[in-house]
Write a structure and sequence with these properties.
The complex is a heterodimer of chains A (235) and B (290). Chain A is α/β, with parallel strands linked by helices and 235 residues long. Helix content of chain A is 37%, strand content 26%. Chain A has a domain of 140 residues: 3-Layer(aba) Sandwich (Rossmann fold), CATH 3.40.50.300. Chain A is globular. Chain B is globular. With 290 residues, chain B is an all-alpha fold. Chain B has one domain. Helices cover 73% and strands 3% of the residues of chain B. Classes of the chains: A alpha/beta (235), B mainly alpha (290). The interface between A and B is medium-sized, with 26 and 16 residues.
Chain lengths: 235, 290
């Protein structure tokens, strides 16, 4: 199957300091792909480069066969990639409903339908739609962040550490939601430090270390891998 | 010193406060969205005043009509300044932004000197001398109209920001600029429009004020300082705070002129500022820490 997203040998730097050094990865339609690695490995940088928030110095990024690198972030969203960023980055003094609606962007025609879907997925948000986003709990804020991404009706949803700072029971619920979203046919690229959980729900995974992909493969291969067990799963 | 006199001063100040509110709302909007302090704010205002003056002189347009054109013109000025200059320093340290805006202020002020000369002007309005008596105090019709228009413009801005898609995007960018980028908002366009609207507010305020107070190119800096004062008192980034702060400062100045010495009226505004900084440094309506 041809890849939905193809990242080929990208190099990304902050000033002179390289953060990603020749990373390559692929996401195929309908897949959940985990991108794992420790703090500072370059995971967030990779997502930001795909989103058009950071320029790449080398390599290329393709989405549905078209070049993506060099496009602005608004164009990338328009092509069908939604980014749920680290730290959620909501609009705290705006209501939940406003936050969600702002995510619709280019998919405005489908706004009502998308909103209904998001509320179906996260019934809690329907109850709280008139509340200011800044007053929600961490888990609810993460739901808003994911919902805001879904409102753009993307073909690929990229999530950056959705489990960060959340209680285990909330993390489980959020990850169940991701599986549910994927069942609807949406591809997911999941960046996580919660390696075990992330791998368990993914089809395939990539391990990023010092800005390079050091390992990749199907879930079961990675879960059984000695390096991963030792470095990330603590066994 | 009678009660009527104090009441008169309070009313005059309150009605005049509409233009203060409008200029402070403009400054607050620009700061809230871009975190850039528009030091050229008062000078943009003076240009609005001069435009109203010229339109009255050449075309006989009343400033209470021509303020729309003045606002549109200063909107364009704001867009050009944002696109050409401010955009380049958005991520630069504050001192660089301040130097740039100080430069813009100097250029605008001296350009006004070259074009209009140093003389003090005042725009003629058909309502300039009309008054209505309400018992022991009178209502200056020009101030009443000014207040009504300033209030209407502020309400229109509020509706735009809270009801329209573009307005919501402007609020979103003010709330979290990175978040706005992530959802694919065209942040450059948002910044351009926000700066233009902030400038249009102060352009309209300048046109309206030109019928109430004499002005010259040198007035700009004083108005910039007054705008800062109001925005800090109201709370940085809070539009409601800027609006109410404008009324508060105008009433305080007007009362100060009557109760103390007229030339000390600015002092009252600054005393208010010092008190706010001492006891409520986030301003009257500024809850958010940035």
């Amino acid at each position: 199957m041809p890849a939905l997203l193809r990242v080929d040998g990208i190099e990304v730097a902050y000033g002179q300091v390289p953060a990603v050094r020749g990373a390559s990865l692929e996401v195929r339609p309908g897949e959940i792909v985990a991108l794992i690695g420790s703090n500072g490995a370059g995971k967030t940088t990779t997502l930001r480069a795909i989103s058009g928030l950071l320029p790449i110095r080398r390599g290329l990024i393709e989405f549905e066969g078209d070049r993506l690198d060099g496009l602005s972030s608004s164009k990338v969203v328009g092509r069908g990639i939604a980014h749920v960023p680290e730290g959620r980055q909501l609009f705290p003094t705006m209501t939940v409903l406003e936050n969600l609606e702002l995510g619709a962007g280019a998919a405005k025609a489908l706004k009502a339908e998308s909103l209904e879907w998001v509320f179906e997925l996260f019934p809690r948000l329907r109850e709280r739609r008139r509340q200011l986003a800044g007053t929600l709990s961490g888990g609810e804020q993460q739901m808003v962040a994911i919902g805001r991404g879904l409102m753009a009706r993307p073909k690929l949803l990229m999530l950056d550490e959705p489990s960060l700072g959340l209680a285990p029971v909330v993390v489980r619920a959020i990850f169940d939601n991701l599986v549910e979203i994927n069942r609807r046919g949406m591809a997911i690229l999941l960046v996580e430090q919660n390696v075990l959980r992330a791998l368990q729900l993914s089809h395939r995974g990539y391990v990023l270390e010092n800005g390079q992909i050091v390992l990749d493969g199907p879930r079961d291969t990675l879960l059984a891998d000695g390096h991963i067990k030792q470095a990330y799963l603590g066994r | 010193m009678t009660l009527a006199l104090i009441g008169q001063a309070a009313l005059n100040g309150f009605l005049f406060g509409g233009v203060y509110s409008l200029m402070a709302v403009g400054l607050s909007l620009i700061f809230g969205v871009m975190r850039v302090i528009n030091i050229a704010h008062g000078d943009m205002m003076v240009w609005g005043s001069y435009l109203a003056f010229v339109l009255a002189l050449r075309l006989g347009l009343d400033p209470f009509v021509s303020f729309v054109l003045c606002a549109a013109a200063i909107f364009c000025m704001g867009v050009v300044v944002q696109r050409a200059l401010v955009n380049r320093v958005l991520n630069a340290p504050h001192e660089m932004q301040i130097l740039l805006m100080l430069g813009v202020a100097l250029v605008l002020e001296n350009l006004a000197l070259v074009v209009f000369g140093p003389d003090t002007r005042r725009t003629e309005s058909a309502y300039g001398l009309a008054t209505v008596w309400l018992g022991p105090i009178f209502v200056d019709v020009a101030r009443l109209i000014t207040f009504g228009l300033a209030l209407a413009l502020s309400c229109a801005l509020y509706l735009f920001l809270f009801r329209s898609d573009l307005g919501k995007l402007i609020r979103a960018a003010a709330d979290n600029g990175y978040g706005a980028l992530v959802i694919g908002a065209d942040v450059e366009r948002i910044y351009m429009v926000a700066f233009g609207i902030g400038a249009a507010c102060v352009g309209a305020a300048g046109a309206l004020m030109s019928a109430l107070l004499p002005f010259s190119p040198a007035t700009g800096f004083a108005q910039t300082v007054t705008s800062f004062n109001i925005v800090i008192i109201g709370g940085m980034g809070s539009l409601l705070g800027a609006f109410l702060g404008g009324l508060l400062v105008a009433v305080a100045e007007s009362l100060g002129a009557v109760l103390l010495v007229p030339s000390l009226k600015e002092l009252v505004g600054f005393v208010l500022l010092v008190l706010i900084l001492l006891f409520r440094p986030q301003g009257l309506f500024g809850g958010k820490t940035t």
